[in-house]
Amino acid sequence: MSAERIGLAVVGCGGFGLFALQHFTQVPGVTLVGMAGTHRPAALAAAARFGVENVEDVDAVLRRDDVDLVYIATPPFLHHPQALAALDAGKHVVCEKPLALTVAQADEMVALARRRDRLLVANLMQRYNPVSAAVRRLVETRVLGEFLHGSFLNLASDENLPAEHWFWDRSKSGGIFVEHGVHFFDLFAGWLGPGRVEAAQVGVRPGTAIEEQVGCTVRYGAGWVNFVHGFHQTGRMDRQELRLVFERGDVTLHEWVPTRARIHALLDEKQTRELCDLFPGARLDVTAGYGGKDRACRGRGQDIDAYQVVELSYGEGRAKGHVYGELLRAAMADQVAWVRDRGHRRTVTEENGRESLAVACEADRLAHLTGGDR
């Protein structure tokens, strides 16, 4: 690896792999030099897009001296063996989520990466989202008081997931909590700290063995969050809603890559200023104002001085695809900075992939322990 150039190879290249590569290679110094283990139609599209040879043999790519970093974009059951092979070959690794199928596999991968002084990270790009960062500041500053509870409702499409797709095969995907839920377990942990799974359930599509929806409750300190993931909608009805409730208001985010936030809050003058500072450029609408003796109210056994009820709208008008690309570029730039300088402090590390997987595996274990609604 030269001081400036980092040779990138991709293992597995479906539609998302091509999307990600178009953003990873916009990071200065990152150049796609090889492809392996690819799904043929998407691989041909990627090869044509980047002008690289579509090499089928993974081992051949890993032996190449011009490959410094390997992006693993294969189904989850291949992440563990392919990451180990790449690390053994002395390559840095960026892996699609989840990091692995089990915590034991993740621990083996992390240990090898640390022994070899190589990068190993899951592509948990949600932490790079400016909307998510603003919510984190909202939690930390307690402008709306203490966090009480939250929810994440993921009504996802299965329109491109036929019954034979690997997504439904738990031996290949790990199930919905592991394959998809890790993104959001990591997101909430970034806001609220480590979580503990207290209950979980799984729903099976009638007349089939397809586990199409899962849910769990995760405790974060004194509050908790209810997660629901269902893959049973037409693509036209794919939608997500995320909400955090505080003592004096709530914040709602939409889309699985949130592009906008809406805050409903009861505030005094100082809190209004602080909220606007946390969400610069947001639109503030005043729903109600109070004066004199009408300012006094109570909640959770506490006296509250209320100046106004407001609705704050932040991040409107941004296309989700554009935001998604921005997050991928930020994620790769962060990891490349560490490859070049071990003193760089990363936003996402190997621990994020490991810990989000641990929560997902525990939720999956509890869901199947109770038997769900079988």
Report on this model:
Strand 14 and strand 15 form a beta hairpin. 36% of the residues lie in helices and 29% in strands. Helix 1 (15-24) packs across helix 10 (320-340) and helix 4 runs parallel beside helix 5 (103-116). It contains 11 helices and 16 strands. By secondary structure, the chain is α/β, with parallel strands linked by helices. It has 2 domains: 6-124, Rossmann fold, CATH 3.40.50; 127-321, Dihydrodipicolinate Reductase, domain 2 (2-Layer Sandwich). The protein has a 9-stranded mixed β-sheet with strand order 7-8-9-6-10-11-12-16-13, with helices on one face. Strands 2-1-3-4-5 form a 5-stranded parallel β-sheet, with helices on both faces.
Structural class: alpha/beta
Number of domains: 2
- Average pLDDT reading: 94
Number of strands: 16
The fraction of residues assigned to DSSP E strands is 25-35%
Tally the helices.
Answer: 11
Fold-level CATH name of the largest domain = Dihydrodipicolinate Reductase, domain 2
Uncertain parts: none
| CATH homologous superfamily annotation of the largest domain | Dihydrodipicolinate Reductase, domain 2
- Order of strands in the sheet with most strands: 7-8-9-6-10-11-12-16-13
CATH class category name of the largest domain: Alpha Beta
Q: Percent helix among the residues?
A: 25-40%
- Biggest β-sheet, characterized? 9 strands, mixed
